[in-house]
Amino acid sequence: MRILIADDERLVRVSLISMLRELYPGEHEIDCAKDGEEMVEMVNRASYDVVFLDINMPKKSGLDALELCKPYFDGTVWCVLTGYTEFQFAKRSISLGVKEYLLKPLDIQELKHFMDAIVNEKKGKKKDRRQLFANKISQAFALADTMGIVNQMWPERKEAQYSIYLFLADTAGNIERQAVYAKLYGDLKENLDRIIEETDQYALFFLQSGELCLLLEGKEYDRISAYLKIHGTEYDMRAKITALWSKAKDFKELYLHKQLLLALSPIRILEDDLTTISMEELRNRSRIMEKRYFCEKIEMLTACYLTENYEGANKILQEMEGNEKLKETFGQIRKDSLLFYLSVVWNDKFEGSAYEELVRQLREVIQKGIVEGCGRKKDLIQQIKDYVAANYMEDVTIAAIGNRFGITPSYISRVFKDKTGEKYIDYVTHIRMKKAREILLNEPEVSVKEVAERVGYVSEKHFSRTFKKYFHCNPSLLASSL
């Protein structure tokens, strides 16, 4: 912590510095002021965690100086050091928000008790503040994903730097992917709590589409960009992990960059394992759109294979087989990264450097899947639709559905849209709005808040906005018109 000692007696300043260094060697940065005016100047120049101040100082008393500083530094803890015991001084100290009132000469155990309490209190407040920050950001991102509205997420800091990271784990199955993400989340959080400075903020959460997202407010932390390379050997699971990141000027731009990173994320298939790459680097890659198109085809094919949509997989393979543009792009990419991705996610061996050989191997694996899975179960997308129709009031986010059915959210999203012609979130909204209308028509006495809860909405405001967008009238008006 940064500490200021304001006292006109040199012996008091030296004694307090000595005690603090004895109790907490090397832990705190300590400055000194010799009078009240110097204290005001120093507090206005720098942000202090703790200020020890004497009441009786030349030029300006400690309490007068505190009165000038207090309105602008709510996060500072103020501790009065004085030989005075008169009640009026203690009373004014309390009215100014002084945390502690210590008498001279200082007792080292009393000082330790005070400092330990401050450290513990600050740790708790920092944890609560960061949790609130993370909750606000994740909720704002989710609302923007659902409604297409990017609201102000948090009061922005002047001159702060903003950055966003997306961590993408590709595995053969959902259980393996969850294990990778769980370890990655825990390790990253532990690392962030250690390196992120007191005044900076971070939010680590999962997007509705399933990817792990990290948002930073404050200075740029190079160690985050190098995290996968430094800690990659700790991930001995069969997975391909990639991170994409970008800088932004504010929260709204961060959300837009999140959308762009997701749009460019198929390119990760062509990157080395444990690579962290910026959006600027991706944009500067040669023929980036052709490569993205190629990778999207691979992702769509993979989604069909993992969801046992073999009809769709064969259709994509037929398109790939005679596509000269895809063949040309294949000739310009690094084959080892692509083959590693396929080997990990398809849980099979892929090799070779010819486009025709790749298509042949993909077809063989798909045919093997058809034989093994023939007649085993009904269409997965229909299972998902049936589940949502029966459980719309519960958590049916695409991430929750992915966990239930053992398929990654991004794959479900692609295949659902390909097979039904609508986005998964639109299907969920349709089911919920249809049910909400039924409740309002059949039970007009039920409040809008209760209807929202019964169809799976936490926020009544969000529900009402969606209902109005869907039916062109407020839910309360529909109920009152009956």
UniProtKB/TrEMBL annotation:
Pfam family, one: HTH_18
Domain HTH araC/xylS-type: 382-481
Signal peptide region: none
Superkingdom, taxonomy of origin: Bacteria
GO MF annotation terms: DNA-binding transcription factor activity; sequence-specific DNA binding
UniProt-listed InterPro entries: CheY-like_superfamily (IPR011006), Homeodomain-like_sf (IPR009057), HTH_AraC (IPR018060), Sig_transdc_resp-reg_receiver (IPR001789)
Residue list for modification 4-aspartylphosphate: D54
GO terms, biological process: phosphorelay signal transduction system
Keywords in alphabetical order: DNA-binding, Phosphoprotein, Transcription, Transcription regulation
Domain Response regulatory, residue spans: 2-119
Function recorded in the entry: May play the central regulatory role in sporulation. It may be an element of the effector pathway responsible for the activation of sporulation genes in response to nutritional stress. Spo0A may act in concert with spo0H (a sigma factor) to control the expression of some genes that are critical to the sporulation process.
Full protein name: Stage 0 sporulation protein A homolog
